[in-house]
Design a protein that fits this description.
470 residues, alpha/beta, Aspartate Aminotransferase, domain 1, 2 domains, seven-stranded mixed sheet, four-stranded mixed sheet, binds pyridoxal-5'-phosphate
Length: 470
């Protein structure tokens, strides 16, 4: 049956010419691109259909070459085009492509679970597999609630998250995500509240430096007390915030969070979906803080994006209620959790991390990247430069004195995105311009990215001079 095409008469959306390549036209007609308005894709010739990746580079169907300045979405930590991962996946698919996840497991899933337990900090040791970060977060929420109930606290169902945070888009995870869209999707999961972010550049408390982190941590305790500790199951936070603007809290913040949670019988969940697997210069960002969470989530860099796989790992103190109860199991089942081909990809990916010492490399290249980004402070719109390892961000502001942000979707930040795209650098520019390339990036490649950003800022600042008051 020939289907009637949707209205891809892009001229109606104000486009001068339709996309040049047949696959771009088909993409516009049939692919539901996540999180970007269709009209925007059509109007700004923003359709990019990629067909090849190599190291930090992506190539689209028109043969254009781009630097992947954000590793997909903080995903491709080992870099694109790793043949050894492709081969490991093919070999596993030939051997065994699936077995039920409800009562069984497979060789690569076991190997992977053991590897994750080895690499994660402290006594984190029991792994529940899923397919993506949102599922890993859903799993963490359910573990926290069920464990609290099995410990005898069935009223402890509330979760405290942070303003500005992103934890995914399935309904439970989205309930924790601060930018959730109440008009379209409310009501959300009951019992979620949001507390201030540790933000030393623009603190909710009007203070600077470590004091901002201390205030943010104290607020968590106040929120637990305000909600009633006997009703709170868990606190969830990224060790270093990523989408929320790359805020790197001081050690004292996480130490305080650990103490506060312990004091009130609340479980501490570290969401390492982006932070994990070398991004911050260590295998896991919590290693910077010397704190072991009760539950930790991971995804993205676990397989460097070669296959969809995620995990939620817990400490023995969390799992013990299941170990001590003959009939107990977690009320949770995901058909593709620990998929053997995805697990084989992750095992090979971790082998590459070990052989090439990618976390150490991220630390070294991250120092270089930060030093280069610091030079951009000379721009009137660069308010702050932050990061750790290869998780970095440049906060763009209208006014350096007031630190007023352009915010997401401002014409200035959109223009920066466009100028970077024209130069061949793909990244995300909202309130913060993110630079987070694969961990294999070289100094020369970092120089190229910083030059592109420098040029884009100079041009956009000239065009928007009237709006910049610094
Ligand atoms: C911290 C964090 N948690 C969870 C998620 C959700 O992951 P996914 O998109 O794989 O579902 C993301 C996605 O970016 C994330 O940044």
């Amino acid at each position: 049956m020939v289907k009637a095409p949707v209205n891809t008469d892009v001229s109606q959306a104000g486009v001068a010419s339709p996309p040049a390549h047949a696959l771009e036209r088909d993409a516009l007609e049939h692919v539901w691109i996540h999180q970007t308005p269709w009209v925007e894709l059509a109007e700004r010739d923003g359709m990019r259909v990629f067909e090849k990746g190599e190291g930090i580079y992506l190539y689209d169907v028109r043969g254009r070459k781009y630097i992947d300045g954000i590793s997909g979405l903080w995903v491709v930590n080992a870099g694109h085009g790793r043949q050894e991962i492709a081969e490991a996946m093919a070999e596993q698919a030939r051997k065994l492509s699936y077995a039920s996840a409800s009562s069984y497991t497979t060789v690569p899933a076991v190997e992977l679970a053991a590897k994750i337990a080895e690499k994660t900090p402290g006594d984190l040791s029991r792994v529940f597999f899923s397919s993506g970060g949102s599922e890993a977060v859903e799993t963490a929420i359910k573990i926290a609630k069920q464990v609290q109930a099995m410990r005898g606290f069935s009223r402890r169902y509330k979760i405290i998250a942070r303003r500005g945070s992103y934890h995914g888009m399935t309904h439970g995870a989205m309930s924790l995500t601060a930018s959730r869209n109440e008009n379209h999707f409310g009501p959300f999961m009951y019992g979620v509240s949001h507390v201030p972010h540790p933000n030393r550049y623009n603190s909710d408390f009007g203070v600077e430096g470590e004091q901002a982190d201390i205030m943010a941590a104290k607020y968590v305790e106040q929120e637990i007390i305000a909600q009633g500790p006997e009703t709170v199951a868990a606190v969830i936070a990224e060790p270093v915030s990523s989408a929320a603007g790359v805020h790197v809290p001081s050690k004292v913040y996480w130490k305080m969070l650990r103490e506060i949670c312990d004091r009130h019988g609340v479980l501490l969940i570290a969401d390492e979906v982006i932070n994990g697997w070398g991004r911050t210069g260590k295998y896991f960002a919590m290693e910077h803080y010397g704190v072991t969470p009760d539950i930790m989530t991971m995804a993205k860099g676990l397989s460097s994006g070669y296959a969809p796989i995620a995990a939620t790992i817990v400490r023995p103190s969390v799992f013990e209620v299941f170990q001590n109860n003959k009939e107990a199991y977690l009320g949770h089942l995901l058909t593709f959790g620990g998929h053997p081909v995805a697990a084989a990809a992750a095992v090979k990916n971790i082998e590459i991390f070990e052989q090439e010492q990618l976390p150490e490399r991220a630390a070294e290249m991250g120092d270089y990247l930060m030093a280069r980004l610091e030079e951009l402070r000379a721009h009137p719109t660069v308010g702050d430069v932050r990061g750790v390892g290869l998780l970095t961000g440049v906060e763009l502001v209208k006014n350096k004195a007031t630190r007023e942000s352009f915010g997401r979707g401002h014409k200035f930040t959109d223009r920066i995105t466009q100028l970077l795209d024209e130069r061949g650098l793909i990244t995300r520019v909202w309130a913060v311009a993110h630079i987070a390339p694969p961990l294999t990036v070289t100094k020369d490649e970092i120089d190229t990215m910083v030059t592109m950003l420098d040029e884009a800022l100079t041009i956009a600042e000239g065009e928007f001079a009237g709006e910049i008051t610094s």
